[in-house]
Amino acid sequence: MRRRPSRTTGRRGALLGASAAVACVTLTACAGGPDDGYAAVGPPRPPSATTARPTAGVTLVPLDPPKSPRAKGTSAGETPAEGTSATGPSKDAGSGPGGTRSPAPSSPLATAPTATTPAALTWSTPTRAPTAHRRCEAVTLAFHNSGGTAVRSGSVTFGTHIIGALGIDWATIDSTERLPVPIAPGAREKKTWTVCVDAWRVPLGTHVETRDVSVTWR
Predict the structure, then answer these.
(1) pLDDT over 80 (residue 203)
(2) Domains of the chain listed by start with CATH number
């Protein structure tokens, strides 16, 4: 028995037919031979060749180009010199307010006070002169302080010899006097003392000679 092709009728059939027509129109040509019919849909819409333009009140601002990652002040392939930072100044150079260079810290040796040397006193050979009394002499000494500290105290001891008529040295008598202090560093001082011994130590025919000098100071 031969089956008859069924036909879709009604609303469902109309919808199926419209869908087929839309599919055919969307394509450039429906499948078929050269003699089959086709539906022209016109040329395809060309892609947009230009970028969208801003509307009124909008301004386009170009973006900055990307910055090079290398350090400022060096060319391509060049590394900063040893002892300098990427921006050029020395790595140990500092700057204070206003861009001025800060002073380098002073060395402890430079700020330490200079040590002063102690007093150093020297004196001359005694100069003797006679006086009105045989048992006394005028003795003069010159002093020089070559140290870095003043002489503030001290004494000088004279050794007076008793000389007989024949030139014999019978005895030596010591006497002590005070130094002419203070004697400043580098200063020179001169002083004359009258040095005497007891009268009974110098009988007739003898005299005195002050030859020996010793000095202590501080």
Answers:
(1) yes
(2) 121-217 (2.60.40)
Is residue 141 within 8 Å of 108, Cβ to Cβ? no
* Residue 127 burial by Cβ neighbours in a 10 Å radius (0-12, 13-18, 19+): middle
Q: Is residue 180 a contact partner of residue 151, using CB atoms and an 8 Å limit?
A: no
What size, in residues, is the chain?
218
For 162-177, write each residue's pLDDT tens digit.
999 999 999 999 999 9
Contact indicator for 215, 154 with CB cutoff of 8 Å: yes
d(CA 207, CA 160): 10
> What's the confidence (pLDDT) of residue 115?
73
Measured from the Cβ of residue 173, the count of other Cβ atoms closer than 10 Å reads: 18
C-alpha angle 186/190/192, rounded to 5°?
160
What's the one-letter identity of residue 128? Answer: R
pLDDT tens digits for 14-58? 444 545 544 444 444 444 444 454 445 555 555 554 555 555 555
Q: What is the DSSP string of 24-64?
A: HHHSSS-SS-TTS------SPPPPP-SPPPP-TT----PPP
Record the tokens describing residue 166, joined without a space: 């024949």
pLDDT-above-90 percentage for the chain: 46
Which positions ≥6 away from 72 have C-beta within 8 Å? 86, 87
Backbone angles phi, psi at 56, to 5 degrees: -60, 140
Give this prediction's pTM: 0.49
